[in-house]
Design a protein that fits this description.
Layout: E1 6-11, H1 25-32, H2 35-42, E2 45-52, E3 55-68, H3 71-80, H4 88-93, E4 98-109, H5 120-129, E5 142-148, H6 156-161, E6 165-166, E7 176-182
Parallel strand pairs: 4-5
Antiparallel strand pairs: 1-2, 2-3, 3-4, 5-7, 6-7
Length: about 180
């Protein structure tokens, strides 16, 4: 069963990641140079770790976000989910093109576990979706993320496997791609 041995805990001190490395140098430096702690301290967000037994196998940071969808994205959503504009929240916001979301600020899986059959990243996405009922997120319809993508590494395929769609065209001058998915409630 997916994530049956995983334990998720909310944390406030990023030093808990002292022995955690995801294998992406830029992210590992961000975690270990104190920048992640500064982000946690200076932004209204929540920091979580996922443990398998006692070992931290993943971490994520989430916050209240918003998602801007153009008419093409909304048309695509209506094709895939014909009743999406009829839900009470969606109906209220459908003409505005801006929707509340849970923003995935950071998500990293321990390097040795990224391609394992434990599906830790997918477990993290499912765990993040459980936060949709928390009042501070204002009944979000979506998860949103700026997926990291460079010629040497890209998280876009992972997010696509987790049913995310791009909300913009890829820009070769930007190392992220804005993506979103509907929250399974």
């Amino acid at each position: 069963m997916l994530g049956s041995n995983f334990i998720v805990s909310q944390e406030t001190d990023a030093s808990i990641l002292v022995d955690f490395y995801c294998g992406l140098q830029r992210m590992d430096d961000y975690i270990h140079d104190g920048n992640l702690q500064r982000f946690i301290d200076n932004n209204p967000c929540h920091f979580y770790v996922i443990k398998d037994d006692e070992e931290i196998v993943a971490m994520f940071v989430i916050s209240k976000g918003h998602l801007e969808l153009d008419e093409d994205c909304k048309d695509d959503l209506k094709m895939k989910f014909p009743d999406i504009d009829k839900s009470p929240i969606s109906k209220m916001l459908w003409d505005q093109c801006i929707f509340p979301s849970i923003e995935i600020d950071y998500l990293a899986v321990r390097e040795g576990n990224r391609c394992s059959n434990k599906h830790i990243g997918s477990f993290a996405i499912k765990e993040i979706m459980t936060h949709w009922t928390e009042p501070e997120y204002e009944n979000p319809l979506f998860l949103s993320v700026d997926a990291y993508r460079t010629p040497s590494y890209s998280a876009v395929r992972f997010y696509e496997k987790c049913q995310f769609w791009a909300s913009e065209f890829p820009n070769p001058n930007i190392d992220t791609l804005r993506m979103f998915r509907i929250i399974d409630s």
